[in-house]
Amino acid sequence: MSTLIPKAAQMVDDALRQVIQKGSRIENLKLVVCPSAPISQNQTIETRFGVLRVEPGMYVPKKVAYIIEDPLRKGFGFAWVSKRDEIREG
User: Fold this and answer.
1) Is residue 90 in a domain?
2) What ranges make up the beta strands (E) of 11-59?
3) What does the pLDDT look like over 3-35, one tens digit per residue?
4) What is the domain extent for residue 19?
C-alpha cells in the first residue's frame, strides 16, 4: 500500500464519497491512473473508506484519474478524481 500526499488523498476520498453514496461498495471499485504515474506502481491504496485497488489504464493520459466500479450491477459507479482542462466537462 502507498501513502498519498494529502491533496491527492483528499481528491480520491472526495470522488469515492460520491460513488459510495450512490450505493457502490469499495470492494467493487478501482482507481484508474496513467501508467507512468508513480501511484500506478501500487496494487492498492488506503483511503478513508478502506482499501482501494489501483489499476494503470493503458489509454489514461498524465494528470487524469478516475474511480470506476466493476460492471456487476445495472448502472455503475464512476467519478473523476482529476482530469485535464481540455477534457473537463462544461
Assistant:
1) no
2) 29-33, 44-47, 50-56
3) 678 898 899 999 999 999 998 999 999 999 999
4) 6-85
